[in-house]
Write a structure and sequence with these properties.
Elements (H helix, E strand, L loop, with lengths): L9 H16 L1 H9 L14 E5 L14 E5 H8 L3 H16 L3
Antiparallel strand pairs: 1-2
Bound molecules: zinc ion (ZN).
Zinc ion binds next to strand 2 and helix 3.
Length: about 100
């Protein structure tokens, strides 16, 4: 599974985490939380139960940018952490499908 591992230096990780913290304080992020929808399961939650989730984790080279962070409920966030890269791809594909389905 080594092909999924991207070398990210401690310094880069620290820098992205600082940026995440700033992003979390932004009005843009507060508006996203106010919508109250988990990006992954699509269920509704009060804003305070949603956390900031990186689509591509910082440790895999993901950036703390608006197109890489989504509101996630605690359950999805912690579930995602333990997924293998392949399971994670499936998880992403399912979330994508749900977004494309007209509801
Ligand atoms: Zn969820």
């Amino acid at each position: 599974m080594s092909e999924f591992i991207i070398e990210v230096s401690e310094e880069e990780i620290r820098r992205e985490r600082d940026k995440s913290r700033e992003l979390r304080r932004s009005r843009w992020w507060k508006n996203r939380l106010a919508l109250g929808v988990c990006h992954w399961c699509g269920n509704r939650f009060p804003a305070e139960e949603l956390t900031m989730d990186h689509i591509v984790p910082v440790t895999r080279g993901g950036k703390a940018s608006r197109n890489n962070v989504v509101p996630s409920c605690r359950e999805c966030n912690s579930r995602k952490k333990y997924l293998l890269p392949m399971e994670w791809e499936e998880f992403l594909a399912k979330a994508q499908q749900r977004e494309e389905e007209p509801s």
